[in-house]
Amino acid sequence: MLRKSIRYVVLPEATLESSLEAFLEELQYLDRTDDIETTLVIFPNHFADFDEYLDLVEVAETLASDQGYDGIYQVASFHPDYCFADSDNDDPANYTNRSIYPMLHILREDSITKVLENFPDPEGIPQRNIAFAQHKGLAYMQLLRAACI
Predict the structure, then answer these.
(1) Which of 37, 112, 113, 141 could form a disulfide with 5 if both were Cys (CB 3.0 to 4.6 A apart)?
(2) Strand pairing category for 103-108 and 73-78
């Protein structure tokens, strides 16, 4: 049976202020809606500049903390030009956080905890993802992303 537990919010027009308002509204929506596990707030026409996007992520995380959401929700970040710190832009590992559009992914921390309780070596997940991407190579990761368009 399909659970339909992912919510998608698309903001075709967005400023920093309106994006943060929508982000806060989604945190509040998740507070009221137990059957939704995660929300993707998607910005198809804005935050194309990766540094500008990182500013949005930082302010959103601060806003969530200021509103008392530490330990309740976690923000994961995805962007078409995602590049890990100290990484070359062409490192295939960057594709583990690259997406078609800039987005903020809001996850329930208790749901993550429950899933990871039964997952072997959860601390090693990021390194395994990086190793997989690097093993497959840049061309493979680019084709995989292109298939989503």
Answers:
(1) 37
(2) antiparallel
Per residue in 19-38, pLDDT (tens digit) is 999 999 999 999 999 999 99
How does DSSP classify residue 12?
S
- Alpha carbons 15 and 27: distance in angstroms, whole number: 18
Nearest to 34 by CA among 110, 102, 91: 110
**Dist CA 82 CA 70 (whole Å):** 24
Side chain identity at 92, as an amino acid letter?
P
Please give the Cα distance from 145 to 98 (Å, whole number): 8
Q: Which tens digits make up the pLDDT trace of 98-144?
A: 999 999 999 999 988 888 888 889 889 989 999 999 999 999 999 99
